[in-house]
Amino acid sequence: MNQTLKRVLAILVLAVTVFAWYVSIFGIGSINSAKDALKYGLDIDGGVYVVMEAQTDLKGDELRDLMEQTRAVIDNRVNQMGVAESSVTIEGEKRIRVEIPGAENAEEAISAVGKTAQLQFLLADGSVVLDGSHVKDAQISTDGSYYKILLEFDSEGASLFEEGTRKAYNREVTSVIDEVTSNQIAIVLDDEIIVHPDVKSVISGGNCEITGRYTKEEASTTAALIRGGALPVDLVEVQTSVQSATIGADALDKSIVAGAIGMLLVFILMIAYFGMLGIVADIALMLYVALFIWSMSAFNVVMTLPGIAALILSIGMAVDANVIIFTRIKEEICAGKSIRVAVNAGFKNALKTVLDAQITTLIAAVVLYEVGTTSVKGFALTLMIGIVISIFTAVIITQLFISLLAESKKFAKNKYFGVKEDGTPKQFLHKSFSFIKNRKIFYIISAVIIILGMGMSLVRGLNYGIDFTGGTMIQVDMHKEVPISEVEDAIDEFNLDPSIIYAGENNTQVVIKTIESLDNEKRAEVVDALGESFGVTEEDVLASEQFGPSVGDELKKNAVKAVVIASIGMLIYIIFRFKSWKYGFSAVVGVAHDVLMVIAFYGIFGFTVNNPFIAAILTLVGYSINDTIVIFDRIRENKQLYKKDGSEVNIDRSINSTLNRTIMTSLTTLVVMIPLCIMVSASIREFIIPLMAGVIVGCYSSIFVCSPLYYDLCRSGEESKYQKQTKSKGKKRK
């Protein structure tokens, strides 16, 4: 690509970046600002979600059919409530998740969702022909162009339907139902007509078909509603959440400010350390954030508070790719190469490392998406989008601008590429350390921390939140500071043994937690009791959550499953890329080490272990391995370049040559998360704290655990090989 074309593309990229940010902030014409264009989850917009579990022993295809019938019936019911953007999805095998944005009264919403459905076949005069109990089956068929619905009735239903079709066919009734003529039979669910076909003949035998210009989806949905009849299975409420839009909006505004502060700090840090290269990285990062936000809007991804955390986390990861590239360029310059040659060599050598690091994180994100709950899936999808865009901006955009700098007479100088005039790089640390020689010290440190943390966890137990133990949380705006003892007295009649703390500015809110899982009706009674004592109403309930014990058990099971699957996936990938099981084994041990260290951290300090913690741990599984991959890549390279040197020398050389990069990438990730941790809500903080701990632990393990472990495996192999050779020589002498 010639320089003129590069300049045109660079100007175009800058123009697109500026325009994208202008539109993101202010909007233009019919295009809303990013804040208004994005679709938000219930934790931001407010609303109700409820998870209900089917009480059935069915399995396999029968269970799937049953759940689809149930979902269709509930979806129809929710749509009747007139709520925009509501969703009804099957979660796991036996659960239905219903999200109702904007709903504030949980009692009404849950009652509407869980009531028994009424399916009826009506003549035009409103008389009942039969009800859903007589429907044996409803399936779909096609003639090649359109789909039709096939109905089958039981013997009693067949007789009733024959009589009804006779009356309709002969037009013996007078229509009193809008849109239903005297020769039609209306099929009604929950007092809403779902279809009203013409009767073209008297139908006997218990079978009939409903024809029309149905698509496959339309026919399948209608058939499911008819087949479901009167809600085909009992449902038990296992999880409920009510969120006030007030809390969500406040958290969103604070997240935006925290994100802006974090980005600014990253910008400053990158410029201070990399000079002109840092400015290039900042431009790429600005484009990255804009592309990320509008990709979320284009793909209609629901933005949640954990999703915002994922965005901010991905900023640190996007910077990481640039740090890897810039570090390699600086090394090439320090090796005596010209700026242009160093840039080309740096990108070439860094590319595979960037891809390896990002792909391992992508593996973890995919597993998280497949195994996680609905809220966790949103976080995982957000992370995946971020990874793809970060690769594009780091590899394509960054390369474009840096190649222009390298070809410029004014900027093609060491000082603009983070290198001093004497040819030495600008870096945090200049001294080389003997990591391998002192490896046992760090093994012992890790072992002591893990044993101490696990020991304390066993003695006093981890501080599980209600997500795991089951229980209820109610956050109420009291409009003034009320003594906690008075709140306890107000709800004493329920014998909840609650934990009550203050929240909000000036302690005007109280958060009531109890290990007892209160159903919708019981929660309403607690709020009524608070109303009698303090005058609060249902509208003052800012947030309410209820978890059944089974939810926590499933979270634990899925978390372990996700860690195992992700570790196996990364192990296979690393073995494939590095052509050695020793790299893969060392990396996976490092992942296990990081998870155990974070759990130990929670055991020692007593932080709450909850759903956000699980999401953070699973993210850590993919993220913490990044530094390890970078070091391993350098070890592999140095083993080829310095074949005469032993493993200890080469591994120490590799760790030291990547040390500044490892520190820098961890620092940029922490810097972008700190404002979020300080400024935003407790729910975000519960997610960020384990991530911050994981970043620190991941940096530590890459340097002091994984690489030394790889050395021990190599040394063991070399010793075994030496022993075999020695033994063989001994036999020959005999």
Question: How would you explain this protein's 3D organization?
Answer:
Strand 3 and strand 4 (95-101) form a beta hairpin. The protein has five domains: 3-39 and 252-417, Multidrug efflux transporter AcrB transmembrane fold (Up-down Bundle); 42-113, Alpha-Beta Plaits (2-Layer Sandwich); 119-230, Gyrase A, domain 2; 439-461 and 553-725, Multidrug efflux transporter AcrB transmembrane domain (Multidrug efflux transporter AcrB transmembrane fold), CATH 1.20.1640; 474-547. It has an eight-stranded antiparallel beta sheet. Helix content is 62%, strand content 14%. The chain starts with a helix and ends with a helix. The protein has 734 residues and is α+β, with helices and mostly antiparallel strands. Helix 10 runs parallel beside helix 12 and helix 13 crosses helix 18. The mean pLDDT is 83. The longest helix is centred in the C-terminal third of the chain and has 52 residues, at 682-733. It is built from 22 helices and 19 strands.
